[in-house]
Write a structure and sequence with these properties.
The protein contains 1 helix and 11 strands. The strands form 4 sheets. A 4-stranded antiparallel β-sheet has the order 2-11-6-8, with no helix packed on it. Pathway: Pyrimidine metabolism; dUMP biosynthesis; dUMP from dCTP (dUTP route): step 2/2.
């Protein structure tokens, strides 16, 4: 699939690190570093603008290393970029750690996954089919 992209950053285009990678790293495009204090959040710009085909979305997801090692995650994970959005890709980062974290220019801050999606048409009914699970949710199937 070809996707049109404008790169106004000084960084290389996002790319897959391995043949089996689902996501591509997004990098911060900053004129000066941004420090997130504990529980702070900020929209970090990437300098990237994309044109997705209809039926395709781009999902902005956390990087597992930043989350595990530093407590930094994407606040609205996954963030969705719709096919009709033409603005700059921004990543809402939040610092869930107890220490300040500084985002530097060029730092890998999130990953971008390209995915197909369907459009639903609602069919209003008076009842739904029965299942073994029924209305059980939020851990109702057990822990093991």
């Amino acid at each position: 699939m070809n996707i049109k992209i404008i790169n106004k950053s000084q960084h290389a285009l996002p790319h897959y690190e391995t043949l089996a990678s689902a996501g591509m790293d997004l990098r911060a495009n900053l004129s000066e570093s941004v420090t997130l204090q504990p529980m702070d959040r900020a929209i970090i710009k990437t300098g990237l603008f994309i044109e997705l085909p209809v039926g395709i979305e781009a999902q902005v997801r956390p990087r597992s290393g930043l989350a595990a090692k530093k407590g930094i995650t994407v606040l609205n994970a996954p963030g969705t970029i719709d096919a009709d959005y033409r603005g700059e890709i921004g990543v809402i980062l939040v610092n869930l750690s107890k220490e300040a974290f500084t985002v530097e220019n060029g730092e890998r801050i999130a990953q971008l996954v390209i995915a197909k999606h369907e459009r639903a048409e609602w069919q209003e009914v008076s009842e739904l089919s029965e299942t073994d699970r029924g209305a059980g949710g939020f851990g109702s199937t057990g822990v093991k």
